[in-house]
Amino acid sequence: MKGYGMLKIGSTGWLEKDVPGCGPMDAIVEPIALAPCTSDIHTVWEGALGDRHDMILGHEAVGKVAEVGSLVKDFQKGDKVIVPAITPDWNSVEAQQGFSMHSGGMLSGWKFSNFKDGVFAEYFHVNDADGNLAKLPEGMDPAAACMLSDMVPTGFHGAELAEVAYGDDVCVIGIGPVGLMSVAGTALRGAARILAVGSRPKCVEVAREYGATDIINYKEGDIVEQVMELTCGKGVDKVIIAGGDGETFLDAVKMMKPGGRIGNVNYLGQGDFIKLPRVEWGSGMGHKTIAGGLMPGGRLRMEKLASLIHLGKLDTKKLVTRTFQGFDKIEEALMLMKEKPKELIKPVVLM
Q1: Angle CA(248)–CA(253)–CA(256) in degrees, nearest 5?
Q2: Which of 137, 238, 255, 314 is disulfide-compatible with 162, CB 3.0–4.6 A?
Q3: CB-CB contact of 104 with 96 (8 Å)
Q4: Cα–chain-centroid distance for residue 91?
Q5: pTM to 2 decimals?
Q6: What is the pLDDT of residues 293-349, one digit of tens each?
Q7: In 3-state terms, what secondary structure has residue 152?
Q8: At a CB cut-off of 8 Å and minimum separation 6, what does 228 contact?
């Protein structure tokens, strides 16, 4: 089969590989819709996960089941499915502890394009099919559903990690596709004021549509000063970090009230350390909590999030600003994600 992957750090290309085998609890899936992610960019061009050779990229897909293992109960050949980016081993000790995304070791629930071939292939393997696949609801747009693989659950997890509650003032740092879903998730959880940090006009427009009440443009001055001015010097209750780098935590801690909580879902692709401001962190005693986590995966989460789209509570079509037709367009879509023109939020490749 044909696939598009990472040849080595800084290099990508087309690969020829055998169609993966199907274990008794697993499935082989043929893609219907695929989306490149900024994580793919970090992996290839920053070497964030270390060197990978001839590894097929991609972890966002909607597909059609081509084969199931003998022990799979709920799926069969021909079913259209949403495939989460994180596919845990559900019988692991870590899953039983409540951290399925780390099944088998830290970040090991993230298999696609981490230590296993990803979804940018004519066929790809899904472990534990009954636990990790979700049926595509009838009539749902595959491009919109593709956002459920990663963008929606990761963005929403930022709101979960920050423990956003009714009436909270929340700042979302970074309003790419994940940050936009953090804005949407924060609004759904009942936040009062939502301050969104970003500058690209299309992202700003969509952030307001998802519930942002204020826009903080980092090109127009220090973001902490802007937040403090808007909140009359009080700061915000919660911060979600969905963009930036290791130094972004400096701003997040400074703009947050004592007793506040940071939810980080940003993939830090570079650097050895993050920085915290000693004084604004209360010299270590400010009750300012930092929680960082990989999105939960699995079937239940996909089904619940799909129901939000199906019932009109969430519109992910706003994220899809460019579509490509045909498997051979994967390379073009990935390079577009790397270049990130101002009008881009998310590209999708339709088969």
Answers
A1: 125
A2: 238
A3: no
A4: 24
A5: 0.95
A6: 999 999 999 999 999 999 999 999 999 999 999 999 999 999 999 998 989 999 999
A7: helix
A8: 234, 235, 255
